Amino acid sequence: MTDTLTPVLTDNWDAERAWTLAAYEERGGYAALDKAFAMAPDDVIAAVKESGLRGRGGAGFPTGMKWGFIPQDNPKPKYLVVNADESEPGTCKDIPLMMASPHTLVEGVIVSSYAIRANTAFIYVRGEVLHVIRRLQRAVQEAYLAGHLGKNIHGSGYDLDLIVHAGAGAYICGEETALLEGLEGRRGQPRLRPPFPAVAGLYASPTVINNVESIASVPSIITNGPAWFASMGTEKSQGYGIFSLSGHVINPGQYEAPLGITLRELIDLAGGMREGHELKFWTPGGSSTPLLTPEHLDVPLDFESVGAAGSMLGTRALQLFDETTCVVRAVLRWTEFYKHESCGKCTPCREGTWWLTQTMARLENGQGSEADLDLLLDQCDNILGRSFCALGDGATSPISSSIQHFRDEYLAHLTHGGCPFDPAASTAFAPVGAPA
Length: 436
Fold this sequence. Notes:
GO molecular function: NADH dehydrogenase (quinone) (non-electrogenic) activity
Structural class: alpha/beta
Order of helices and strands: HHHHEHHEHEHHEHHHEEHEHEHHHHEE
CATH topology of the largest domain: Rossmann fold
Distance between the termini: 36 Å
Largest sheet: 4 strands, parallel
CATH superfamily of the largest domain: NADH-ubiquinone oxidoreductase 51kDa subunit
Radius of gyration: 23 Å
Family: Belongs to the complex I 51 kDa subunit family.
Function: NDH-1 shuttles electrons from NADH, via FMN and iron-sulfur (Fe-S) centers, to quinones in the respiratory chain.
Mean pLDDT: 94
Number of helices: 18
EC number: 7.1.1.-
Number of domains: 3
Strand order of the largest sheet: 3-2-1-4
Helix content: 40-55%
CATH class of the largest domain: Alpha Beta
Protein name: NADH-quinone oxidoreductase subunit F
Low-confidence stretches: 424-436
């Protein structure tokens, strides 16, 4: 079963002082630069396109295609911005990657910036993770001192400056245009599009915004070739990815495997569900993706298959909940998060998430009636597709999917006048009146 894993980005995480330049170079780090510099920038883009690499930040848009949108005839400077504002409940891949091996990301930034002909790049990091910010800053400093950044890198004639920017700690800044607003010193709120960032992004200049894992995957593609990367995964979701397992598994953590692996296989790799308990529901890509159930254990975890199952692969943040968890309470907690993190710019999200929270709280307390379930779905419908960005859409996903799969549990709250699960009954919650 362990042969299922494909450690590439995580391969050096167990090395002694893996985050240092010496440890990274000892394993061949920064060798991809010379190979990339021997290629024309357009050839680097073509290689990434051929590899089939799709954005690892949630949307799954082809990375090479996004790079190709940059208008090279635009006289303004080009920018690369790395979205390292990992902050959605359940997501835990980019921060461990930057902590364990920041030079993997730095090398990816250099190759990617060369491909799109950018001479300035930014890594926008969530402000609360100060330890990661310091580690990135040190890695960037080491790269400058070693000649991997700055002027005339490796004698290629290519110049690049890399800035690590600490964000203000808002979940909304993970949305790419709100991130740009934050970089420019303004309040982090989404921009209306068009214009799109590829045409008028940072400082109204052509800009590529990619997730940490997307950029960190580029050096391995250049080193090993696009065919090597494309040989993993599925036909339309190629390559490997870091799957983050959290919740009620014996060994939660990061598991790097080809796209298309199933949750059943990942649970086996993680030692199984905690003893004596069974899977009740799970998220394939963080709290903003529709819930799935044990009947989806064998769905291939690729963009197409998860979409066909009614959810989204997202950031592969797999949160696993067993039968001790009240689904209504879990969804309410997520909804409270989205209400709190709404930037307030657009009415559907600002008002909608507030009303969702009120209705969910009433149901969780056993108040209201079955008609409130239809009210919830109506509220979700009024938000979905009508907000400036995906935050509003994400807030509706766990609600609508939980009603679809666990309507009886919502009704049980009304029947019992509150949550039917009694945490005092046993370590595994038992419905009120049932034997402990």
